[in-house]
Every structure is written in C-alpha cells, then in structure tokens.
Amino acid sequence: TVLVMYFTSISTAQTTDCLHLREQCINAANGCESVWNVVEDVCNISVLGNRCKAEDVIGCNRIIQVLADEYPEFKNCVCTTDDVCSITTLLGKQCSTDKDNISMETKLQWSLSALSKQAYTANRTCLDVNKECVEDEVCNKQLSLYLKVCSLNKKCNMEECQAAIRFFYQNMPFEVAQMMTFCDCIQRDESCHRAKELLHGKPCAVTEVPPPSCLNVIHMCEENELCRKKYTAFRSKCWRHVTKKCYDDEACLETLIKDDMPCSANADCKAAYISNWGTMLRVECTCQNLPPAEKSLCGLFHHMLHSKSCFS
C-alpha cells in the first residue's frame, strides 16, 4: 500500500509539472505555443479531458518528439513508445523517452518508400516532385499532416504553419528533402508554380504583409533560440568566409560585397539551408524603403538568405 501511494504521488507530481509546462508553453512568446497547437491538431486531442484520439499514432509521436527536441523542458513529459500516443504521459503515465526507437521506425518506413530510393537530380520540376510525393504512401502521409495545418481553407497562423513545415522537412530523408527544396518551374507553368508554393509553405509560412526588411528578419531570428541556432549553422556551413572574416560585426559585414562571398554549396550547406524551412529565415523580406545607410547590409542579408546563386 505504501509503495502504491508512493508511485501514485510521483505520477501525480509529474502530471502537475507537465500540465504546468503545457500552460507555460501556451502562454510563452517563444514559439512553443505554435508547436503545441500542431501537436493538438496532429494528435487530435480532445479539449475535454485531454484525451488523445490520434488516428496516425506515428505522426502524433513524431510531432511530440519535435516538441521535446525544440523545448527540452518537455523531455520528462513525453514518451515515444506508447501504444496509443505520447500525449497520454501528460496525464501522468510514466515512461522513458526512447528517441532511437522512433528514429528507427521512421527509417524503416522510409526504407520501404519508393521515393526515398530515387537519386537526387537537379532541375526537377516542382509539379513532378509533388506528384511523386502524393503517389508515395509514406511521403503523402507526411505531406497531409503539414497541409492540414497550413491549409488556406482556414485562417493562416504563420507560426503554426512554420512549426508544421519544420516537422515535415525533419522527417524527410536528405535526398527527398533536396528534391522538394530545389525544385523549380518554367515561367508560364501555373500548375507547377502552385505545386512549388504548396511544397515551400506559400503563402502561409513565408508571406507577411507588409514584407519585413531583411535586417529585421535577421535581428528577430537572433532573438529566438531555435532560429539563432539554425542561422549560425547555416552561416558556418554555407558562408564560412563571412563568418571567418566578420563574425557578428555588422560594420564589417557592410564592407563585403556579393562577389566577395564564396558559398560552399556542399552537402552540409544544403542540409543547413533545408533546415531553415519553417523559421523566419525563409520569410520573404525586402530592402526597399530603407535609409541609404542600411541598404548595403540589408542587400547582403537578402543575398545570403534568398539568392539561388549558392546552389545554381
């Protein structure tokens, strides 16, 4: 009886702590609420009783793992080995996180996917890539989760859509992610351009009205821990010359010109670029209407974030 009471008290304490974390997450201004909303959407959580009715258990577990990866305080509240889904641990069920188990599960699914066996080739049209994803059972399931959150049929929430895109691209094998990221269209192919917008989160995840300056995008990113890590990795993998010469010195950066910015464009750089999807680094930015003193630095940031010259 004493042991039962002891474990019950532990379970109750854990439930209280995790529910408190959830409340903190919902009220935070650091993007946690957006990821949590995607968790609720994907896991089909009932508001009454917080019951989980996930039809896609694997998808539910994956998005919860994303939550724990991006916000480590949730590590003790989630479990990726539940029979139902991990959200039950927020109601007090104790278990340990087994991230290797879920990553092996993902790899096994993708090893059975025909799309993942295709070698990456440049200049694939976005319409072709989109069709291949829709026709592939594993890829289509991932795409459906992302479209559910970023759908234009409901009012767009940029942060939630960005969280869903991060989740989407994190679950792609590198070859598949490359196909989707670097696909393109000929100018007049409207169907292809619609497919490209769908794969790249337009307009919900990347379009703000009015568009921010590229200077503001970088400064906002540096104030967000998750974005700052991705930006640091992207700059060090793709623009080593910039990092080595100037670090974070904006006065130094202003002395650089685009021709003095060699891009590595190797596999590590491509992976870092793909990792930027679902962050404010992919938001369309502008350098118009800025004071002359700021235009040079803004143009440099726009070149780093949006120029295709690195991968063409």
From TrEMBL:
Keywords: Cell membrane, Glycoprotein, Membrane, Receptor, Signal. The keyword Cytoplasm does not apply. Its main location: membrane. It is found in: Cell membrane. The keyword Signal applies. One of its GO terms (molecular function) is signaling receptor activity. GO terms for cellular component: external side of plasma membrane; receptor complex. One of its GO terms (biological process) is nervous system development. Residues 126-204, 214-310 form the GDNF/GAS1 domain. Belongs to the GDNFR family. This is GFRAL protein. The lineage of its organism: Eukaryota, Metazoa, Chordata, Craniata, Vertebrata. The gene is Gfral.
